[in-house]
Amino acid sequence: RGVGLCAARGGAWLESGRIGHICGNAERSVESRAKLDNRGPMMWRPSLLLLLLLLRHGAQGKPSPDAGPHGQGRVHQAAPLSDAPHDDAHGNFQYDHEAFLGREVAKEFDQLTPEESQARLGRIVDRMDRAGDGDGWVSLAELRAWIAHTQQRHIRDSVSAAWDTYDTDRDGRVGWEELRNATYGHYAPGEEFHDVEDAETYKKMLARDERRFRVADQDGDSMATREELTAFLHPEEFPHMRDIVIAETLEDLDRNKDGYVQVEEYIADLYSAEPGEEEPAWVQTERQQFRDFRDLNKDGHLDGSEVGHWVLPPAQDQPLVEANHLLHESDTDKDGRLSKAEILGNWNMFVGSQATNYGEDLTRHHDEL
To answer: For the chain, how long is the longest CA-to-CA vector?
Structure first.
């Protein structure tokens, strides 16, 4: 059948450290899929499309022995803007560079002369303003939006890399039919998965992906823009996808289908005891964690709200914190906004360069920054 289904029927289990996914093996049951999915970096079973994209880009590996049993694979934690120390006081602006540009582009800027670095920063300033209200100033909101944009570049790049595969009619959008056929293969109506042993499992996967697609498709035209496809593939990054993330997590864990996650269901997602095996101490710790921190209203189980608080925990708005910092350090006239001159006057905090280590010029067009 289609390339997508053929790849899926081949089966694969991919994990590197805590990053793991499945690309369905038709012989696995729905329950065993859910068990494997616990190891993934997201808190629900990823779409089959996303799994195939990972296969295409060569993801590989095996479960890490130090990955840890505590279910953090289901919890989405925002990555730090930079792993560098925030040490402006000693003239170390690496944290700010990586926050403002993204880590890879920050490395590229480090190879530029000061003149070229400032010139490119000027073009970024123009772009930040154009993306906002275009009034000639960079506001706090525009600066925050830019930082958030740069931190999601790896997500957008992964979608762009696969766009042509799924936009088969080259109209600049990906329809549900295109995505379904590329992922699961072409079938005549009424014959879906008739050549697959575990057809019911695939039908459930297809229905689940279609439901997620409909939520991502905000204008309801059954055609995904790049932003909508990104929401489909990475729902944890989009507030309007929160409910679907919670629903998928509940479906994975709620084995008795009562609409809640009981403590035993929570534990079963983490640990399967061998006959006669004594329950490890870490499992007992997880039971206590469930009672003390997951079950917020202390009624003995998790409802949808509590599942959401667990897998999509409240987090500090890191881009806003950094935007406030850059504004404070660069707003010389203290009017609460930044002019292009003010940003360029403090250019070394935003982008930096190494004049004595001028390497290969950037190949990325400035519009991609």
So the answer is: 72
| Amino acid, single-letter form, for residue 185 | G
pLDDT in tens, 272-282: 888 888 989 99
pLDDT at residue number 353:
62
Is 1 within 8 Å of 182 (Cβ atoms)? no
pLDDT in tens, 169-210: 999 999 999 999 999 999 988 889 999 989 999 999 999 999
Token code pair at residue 2:
């289609």
- Element housing 116 (H / E): helix 114-131
b (16+ CB within 10 A) / e for 39-52: bbbbbbbbbbbbbb
DSSP percent split of the chain into helix, strand, coil, nearest 5: 55, 5, 40
* 3-state secondary structure at position 12: strand
**Which residue type is seen at 215?**
V
In the block, which residue shows the tokens 């369905």? 24
Q: What is the DSSP letter of 2?
A: -
Cβ 28 vs Cβ 199: under 8 Å: no
pTM value? 0.67
DSSP assignment of 134-201, as one string?
-SSSB-HHHHHHHHHHHHTHHHHHHHHHHHHHH-TT-SSSEEHHHHHHHHH----TT-TTTTSTTHHH
List, in sequence order, every residue forming a beta bridge with 42; answer none if it has no partner.
none
Q: 164-201 in b/e burial notation, b at 16+ Cβ within 10 A?
A: ebbbeeeeebbbbebbbbbbbbebeeeebbeebebeeb
- Two structure tokens written together for 199: 């057809």
The amino acid that residue 228 corresponds to is E
The span from the CA of 284 to the CA of 341, in Å, is 59
Q: Where are the domains of the chain?
A: 90-260+303-363
Q: Give the integer Cα–Cα distance in Å for 159 and 147.
A: 19
